[in-house]
Amino acid sequence: MSRFRDEIGEQPGIAANMLARRRATVDSIGAQIRDAGPRGFLIAARGSSDHAALYAKYLFGRRNRALVSLAAPSLFTHYSSPPRLEGQCVIGISQSGSSPDVIAVIEEAVRQGALTVALTNDAESRLAGVAALVFLLGAGPELSVPASKTYTASLLALALLSQAIDPEPAFEQALAQVPLALSEAVVREVELDRLAPALLGPRAIVLSRGFNLATAEEVALKLTETSYILARAWSVADFEHGPIAVVDEGFPVLFVGGGGPVAADLGRTARRLEGYGSRVIGIFDGKAGEFDREGVVGIDSGLPEELTPLTLAVLGQLLAHRVALARGIDPDRPRSLSKVTRTW
User: Fold this and answer.
1) What is the mean pLDDT of residues 170-174?
2) Domains 3-176 and 183-326 belong to one CATH topology
3) How would you classify residue 138: left for phi > 0, otherwise alpha for psi between -120 and 50, otherwise beta?
4) HSE of 325, CA atoms in CB hemisphere, 13 A
5) What are the domain boundaries of the chain?
6) Is 146 exposed, middle or buried (0-12, 13-18, 19+ CB in 10 A)?
7) Spatial separation of the C-alpha atoms in residues 273 and 89, rounded to whole Å
């Protein structure tokens, strides 16, 4: 149907390969980070990789009790005023490994003597050549402009890195279930046609909280770049502090939920929006709570909330693909975009 759809379908196999073949690498990186004892993590990324960085902010914060900051690359490039990075572990995430501003952050971190790690899909990239430690995603060539398999590969790499730094048997067992869970998400594709009609207009909002705030951001990006919908993501907490004023009768709001302590917040906001006449739909891994079943597509993978951004990213990618087809748009060739974007 499209390269985008083909690459979405490759993700269970890529996850299985990463788990089988790259554990020695990630365990070594984790051990070196643990030995260095960094005060925190600074992560540089752009686009979809920036959403992976947001995921890491919650993952490393919850599992590793680490303070995670997202880099402001323009401080390193345009303003020539990089922050002091002593005692930090600086991670660069870029599927191509050629984003100049991400590379600039890693180069400065090397200059300052900070521990550096690259997550990239290209072993020959500048980013891989600059960083002290490199985790190759091994996702194979990604030909479609919208990222799919490199995004979930980045999430899984971060989850493996978190586990390598602070091993936990239950989380190890959950990681082993990721490929099967991704396969379960892929086979729900046709069900997503129930949600697509709500997203055929020019605007949409995507809401979540916690670990899946990153997923909401990624799904909003996918809807925007594949279907030209002006989609915006918010945490439900931030949404109720002002942006909720934009909704009116029939306004489409997509919820993304993976259970956990934030599930009740999503339900409360959904009920409030239904009271305003908004068109509330959702994708879920786990119980959907009080959401209308006709407006929900979900799975119940059994994964902990920390890993549901993987399955929900796949559901979100498939939804974006179905919406693009419904709108008569080729998702492989978004206007004004190219596969590699170089920003300073």
Assistant:
1) 98
2) yes
3) left
4) 15
5) 3-176, 183-326
6) buried
7) 41
pLDDT, mean over the chain: 94
pLDDT band at residue 336 under the 50/70/90 scheme: low
CATH homologous superfamily of 3-176 equals Glucose-6-phosphate isomerase like protein; domain 1 (3.40.50.10490)
Task: List the beta bridge partners of residue 92.
Answer: 44, 118
330: number of Cβ within 10 Å: 13
Cβ contact 202:224 at 8 Å: no
For helices 11-21 and 149-165, the axis angle rounded to 10 degrees is 30
Residue 326: both structure tokens together: 């419904």
Domain 183-326 carries which CATH code? 3.40.50.10490
Mean local confidence (pLDDT), 249-265: 95
Question: At 193, which amino acid appears?
Answer: D
Could you give the angle at which helices 149-165 and 308-326 cross, rounded to 10 degrees? 170
Report yes or no: 154 and 269 within 8 Å, Cβ to Cβ: no
pLDDT at 223: 96
Judge contact between 212 and 258, C-beta under 8 A: yes
pLDDT value of position 146? 86
